Q: What sequence folds into this?
């Protein structure tokens, strides 16, 4: 069975991200190896990964191909603001988009599927947000406070111990939210 994962903001090869995001690695090379290890510890070769942008940022875009080829899974890329290196390796991605509306079959969701809006950037509102559609984003590296009344959150590696998170993990987080439909009690 294919599992679905979400992640963002690896910044493979980016030395300055160590200080910008206070990452606990001594070098970009050490960071890259640990990110690959953590990715592959969860993601199997046939699993699906939605990467919400900023895969890599390096002066050597060709070297990123080696990293991408070491990552398990079928990777779908939502473009971030630092994709120069990743876009040199378009063939590694199942598709590349700016935005995507995903539907995941889920018996517990309304009508048997959960709709999820995928974008690199956080939004306050999104298509069908008032109907329980989720929104996953990256970009902020954990700098935005989570809103318990909003069905959205940052899936970036800085927020999840440098691991991708599964659909089931996302679902568990969403179940803890206090969101209620805004028009539920209107007459």
A:
């Amino acid at each position: 069975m294919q599992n679905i994962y979400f992640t963002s903001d690896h910044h493979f090869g980016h030395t300055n991200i160590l200080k910008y995001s206070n990452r606990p690695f001594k070098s970009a090379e050490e960071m890259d190896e640990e990110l690959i290890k953590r990715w592959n510890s969860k993601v199997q070769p046939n699993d699906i990964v939605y990467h919400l942008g900023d895969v890599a940022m390096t002066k050597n875009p060709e070297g990123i191909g080696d990293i991408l080829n070491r990552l398990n899974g079928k990777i779908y890329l939502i473009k971030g603001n630092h994709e120069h290196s990743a876009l040199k390796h378009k063939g590694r991605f199942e598709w590349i988009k700016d935005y995507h509306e995903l539907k995941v079959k889920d018996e517990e969701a309304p009508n048997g599927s959960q709709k999820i809006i995928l974008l690199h950037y956080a939004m306050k509102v999104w298509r069908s947000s008032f109907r329980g559609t989720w929104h996953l984003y990256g970009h902020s590296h954990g700098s935005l406070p989570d809103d318990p009344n909003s069905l959205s959150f940052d899936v970036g590696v800085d927020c999840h111990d440098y691991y991708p998170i599964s659909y089931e993990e996302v679902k568990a987080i969403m179940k803890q939210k206090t969101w209620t439909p805004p028009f539920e009690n209107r007459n």
In short: The chain has one domain: 4-175.
